[in-house]
TrEMBL record:
Family: Belongs to the DoxX family.
InterPro entries: DoxX, DoxX-like_oxidoreductase
Single GO cellular component term: plasma membrane
Protein name, per record: DoxX family protein
Main localization category: membrane
Length: 148
């Protein structure tokens, strides 16, 4: 019986890897979409009463970048349209690289002041690593993507 089970498990990881990767990409896109949608709709998100205003403040006051409202709008587009594109495998490498850069920016801007326990830096660090992996791995052949 053990030999039968072992034989049936032979090659299982290779067979389910594409499905596991698609699930990972879908979950990543959904999580990011939940951050962009409140910005797009102007509704609260967790403890943030106005996430778009919070993004503008972060970009302007913490990061010191010009054109904060315009950049916040681009972030909102990335976290809504880009998240859906990533979830569905469209332009996977381009979108994942944009998310990687966004998460690195958040890490650089907020990393020194964020503890590891409450609203910690581990979230954008993990999201940056995941975005980097998806950018390197690319799509699964179901939609346009940056060539390897």
């Amino acid at each position: 019986m053990v030999k039968t089970i072992r034989a049936s498990m032979q090659g299982l990881p290779a067979r389910i890897e594409p499905m596991a990767y698609a699930l990972l990409r879908l979950g990543f896109g959904i999580v990011l979409f939940t951050h962009g949608l409140p910005k797009a709709l102007g509704i609260s998100h967790g403890s943030m009463a106005d996430p778009m205003a919070g993004s503008i403040r972060l970009i302007q006051d913490v990061m010191g970048l010009p054109f904060a409202p315009q950049l916040a709008f681009l972030v909102m587009l990335l976290e809504t349209v880009g998240a859906l594109m990533l979830a569905f495998g469209l332009w996977t490498r381009w979108v994942a690289m944009a998310f990687f850069l966004e998460m690195i920016g958040i890490c650089v801007a907020l990393g020194p002041t964020w503890p590891w326990i409450d609203r910690g830096i581990e979230y954008p660090v993990l999201m940056a690593l995941l975005a980097f992996y998806i950018a390197v791995r690319g799509g699964d052949g179901h939609g346009p993507s940056l060539p390897r």
